[in-house]
Amino acid sequence: MQKKHIALGFGGLGGAIGGAIAWKLLSRPTEVHFEDIADDIVHSENSKFAEVDGMQVHYQEFGDAKNPTLLLIHGYTASTYVWHQVAPKLAGEGFHVIAVDLIGFGFSGKPKFFSYTIASQARMIQRLMNRLGIGKATLIGSSYGGAVASWLTLDNPERVEKLVLVNAVINNEAMSNPFVKIIGTPIFGEAISPFLSDSRKFMKYRLQGTLHPSNHHLITEERISAKLRPLKAADAHNSLLMTIKNWNADRIEEDAHLINQPTLIIWGDSDNVIKIENGEKLYDTILNSRFVILKDCGHIPHEENPEMFTQLVTDFCKNNK
What we know:
Layout: H1 2-27, H2 34-37, E1 47-52, E2 55-62, E3 69-73, H3 86-92, E4 96-100, H4 118-132, E5 137-142, H5 144-155, E6 160-166, H6 178-184, H7 188-197, H8 200-210, H9 221-228, H10 234-245, H11 250-255, E7 263-268, H12 276-285, E8 289-294, H13 301-304, H14 306-318
Helix pairs in contact: 4-5, 6-7, 7-10
């Protein structure tokens, strides 16, 4: 009799979990509309949209278009928000700044037909440059965005003036990250990703592991809301899953020696997401490169130390060597 009660208890628990998953999948919005939440988006007055290959690409533009262009590319699960401090600062230093949302992220389109590979994201950036009339730019890529920037540089070197790689993805080591492994697990990942990707508690936990402990004061309710805002809909959850399923970054490490552009490599000394050894590999491999390590900094230097980041990028881009 006791065993029957235990079995029924587990059955009830399984049904409750299944019901919660079903409710979450059915109750979440299909997509998040920019115009509905524009008042809450940082620098929404600088937001613009361009159509690239039938997809809407959201970007934020700062500074005079006649100035040298810096094109900023965010990382996995991120958006233009990660540049909200440094983008206007860089524009104030005399640059034309374009911060773009990759396809599937932020407020860009999230179509199911897109392949969600690093190569396809790089191709989108190139075609966005065509659409905006930008012949050549300095690419600044953070984390996964560093892989996209590197890929574009390797395939279309004539479009890249200089390259800035910030705690960049250069291989598939990131696939061992616990969050990535959970999201990438077949079936289970699809069921659990909606709960994780728009959870305030989980976002806070991720930020605590991403930022250096001395920068945990940056984990405010406002920052958490800004990061979660584009991740609450079904199309965003699909984009997260598809990006992991199609993750293949090993080419960056293998072909980095072919990058001839002047390259600035910036890394936080306490990055728990992408090991600093990857930055050392880039520095050893890219002939015309310099490597700057920021003390007491984690995975996102542009958010943790925006003043130093702005100064480093400004000096690098204005140096003619």
